């Protein structure tokens, strides 16, 4: 992997000599599109229904790194980017460098009317609903106002389709969600389907990322069919027919690459005489319930862990979790969490990526394979093709890790958007657009 200059102030990464992942991503996008359209044909959808024939105008809020735009390109659909918004300066710089939206704002709450759109997406903040957040406040959290903004945008601009995304913990608050959708008048305007999707379960990808996707299609242009049955069968087809991904090692960059660096953002440890952190007692308690031979084997990871820049707590958590699982050959764990609740995966499975997570991967059958997954590798696990994106100058490892942790998986986003677009009868949509234009001209 080498660095090449694209234009002043930006840097692009290119895989050489073969862009294996690039071809892999393109093939999966084509496969998703093909399976969904085949299922639509079997369901007897109107012949005029087809996203390829439409001119798409895309808009998004809480845009992250622009997974919606990447998904459109992966599906082979052309679109113009109307507007994007994100509170993160780094996200806005990344979006502007790669997709150049007509309008780019920091605060969606203060966004003005930007024009009409064909499709809309929003990955509104998940912290108020996440089960990993012990202090979640649900609707008392001010960040939930962005959900109201998304619903209001859909209600006023009336795009043909919309996709909203959030964590599965939102399912606990379905009554309030339905009430908010009804309050905006969207129950009469839109058909709304909620589909739980995870790249690991549906697409056989390595990274877990279970999420709820709200698929919304305007009723007056929706295909006249049983859409719930269609989505259910389409997801079943995807799950059964999707080819296996490349080996996990294919997502790792060269050790001499620009982004493979040790992330030494460790907290200072108190050095008072006689002081003992809480995790020491916790680790000792957990070790009592683990086989002694597994504990002895796990101690071999101590020295390599220190070389990666892991703290004693993180190194101990890695050893304990590996030993608790019976010392499997392949193991991936997020050691930023305390021992006993460390997210982990075996056989190429990668736990859900977070902004502050420290993912460690190793294969015990091969010596010296313990590695700390870099931010660039996390982006690739999220379906981002690094050879096709531009990294703004000055983007640090921590900045990119936050981008990866907040991102929607590109291939799952492509699937959700393809399902929504396929449920639109584009002949009706074009006719409706012409009729509205004529009325406006007469007035």
Task: Give an overview in words.
This protein has 443 residues and is of the alpha/beta class. It is 38% helix and 16% strand. It is built from 16 helices and 14 strands. It has helices spanning 20-42, 67-74, 89-98, 145-157, 174-183, 186-189, 199-202, 227-241, 278-287, 292-298, 302-307, 312-324, 375-381, 397-406, 410-422, 426-442; strands at 2-5, 10-14, 56-61, 79-85, 103-105, 119-122, 161-167, 190-197, 211-218, 330-334, 344-345, 359-363, 371-372, 390-392. The strands form three sheets. A seven-stranded mixed sheet has the order 5-4-3-6-7-9-8, with helices on both faces. The chain has a four-stranded antiparallel sheet with strand order 11-10-12-13, covered by helices on one side. Strand 6 (119-122), helix 4 and strand 7 (161-167) form a beta-alpha-beta unit. Helix 1 runs parallel beside helix 15 (410-422), helix 9 (278-287) packs parallel to helix 12 (312-324) and helix 10 packs across helix 12 (312-324). The longest helix is centred in the first third of the chain and has 23 residues, at 20-42.
Main sheet characteristics: 7 strands, mixed
Which secondary-structure class do the elements indicate?
alpha/beta
> Care to count the β-strands?
14
String of helices and strands = EEHEHEHEEHEHHEHEHHHHHEEEEHEHHH
Computed CA radius of gyration, to the nearest angstrom:
23 Å
Helical residue percent? 25-40%
Runs in which pLDDT lies below 50 for 5 or more consecutive residues are 1-18, 256-270, 437-443
Distance between the termini: 59 Å
Q: What count of helical segments does DSSP give?
A: 16
**Major sheet: arrangement of strands:** 5-4-3-6-7-9-8
Net shape:
globular
| Mean pLDDT figure | 83
Beta-strand percentage?
15-25%
Organism: Durusdinium trenchii
InterPro entries: C5-MTase, C5_MeTfrase, SAM-dependent_MTases_sf
Keywords: Membrane, Methyltransferase, S-adenosyl-L-methionine, Transferase, Transmembrane, Transmembrane helix
GO molecular function: methyltransferase activity
């Amino acid at each position: 992997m080498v660095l090449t200059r694209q234009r002043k102030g930006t840097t692009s990464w290119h895989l050489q000599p073969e862009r294996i992942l690039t071809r892999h991503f393109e093939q999966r996008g084509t496969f998703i599109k093909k399976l969904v359209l085949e299922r639509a044909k079997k369901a007897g959808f109107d012949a005029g229904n087809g996203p390829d024939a439409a001119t798409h105008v895309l808009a998004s809020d809480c845009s992250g790194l622009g997974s919606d735009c990447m998904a459109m390109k992966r599906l082979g659909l052309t679109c113009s980017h109307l507007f994007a918004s994100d509170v993160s300066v780094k996200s806005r710089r990344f979006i502007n460098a790669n997709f150049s939206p007509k309008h780019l704002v920091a605060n969606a709450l203060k966004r003005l009317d930007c024009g009409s759109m064909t499709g809309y997406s929003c990955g509104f903040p998940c912290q108020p609903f996440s089960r990993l957040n012990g202090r979640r406040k649900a609707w008392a959290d001010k960040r939930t106002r962005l959900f109201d903004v998304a619903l209001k945008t859909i209600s006023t601009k009336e795009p043909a389709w919309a996709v909203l995304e959030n964590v599965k913990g939102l399912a606990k608050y379905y009554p309030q969600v339905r009430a908010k959708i009804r309050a905006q008048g969207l129950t009469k305007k839109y058909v709304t389907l909620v589909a739980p999707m995870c790249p690991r379960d549906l697409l056989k990808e390595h990274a877990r990322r279970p999420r709820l996707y709200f698929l919304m299609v305007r009723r007056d242009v929706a295909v006249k069919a049983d859409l719930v049955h269609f989505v259910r069968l389409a997801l079943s087809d995807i799950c059964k027919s999707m080819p296996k991904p490349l080996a996990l090692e294919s997502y790792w960059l060269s050790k001499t690459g620009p982004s493979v660096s040790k992330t030494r953002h460790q907290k200072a440890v108190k050095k008072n005489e006689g002081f003992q952190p809480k995790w020491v007692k916790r680790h000792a308690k957990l070790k009592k319930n683990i086989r002694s031979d597994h504990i002895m084997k796990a101690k071999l990871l101590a020295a390599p862990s220190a070389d990666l820049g892991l703290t004693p707590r993180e190194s101990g958590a890695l050893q304990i979790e590996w030993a608790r699982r019976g010392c499997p050959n392949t193991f991936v764990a997020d050691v930023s969490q305390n021992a006993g609740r460390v997210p982990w995966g075996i056989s190429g499975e990668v736990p859900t990526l977070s902004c502050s997570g420290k993912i460690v991967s190793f294969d015990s059958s091969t010596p010296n394979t313990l590695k700390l997954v870099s931010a660039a590798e996390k982006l690739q696990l999220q379906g981002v093709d690094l050879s096709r994106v531009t990294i703004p100058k000055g983007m640090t490892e921590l900045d990119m890790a936050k981008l990866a942790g907040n991102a929607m998986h590109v291939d799952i986003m492509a699937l959700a958007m393809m399902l929504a677009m396929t449920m639109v009868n584009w002949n009706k949509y074009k006719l409706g657009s012409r009729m509205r234009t004529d009325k406006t001209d007469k007035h």
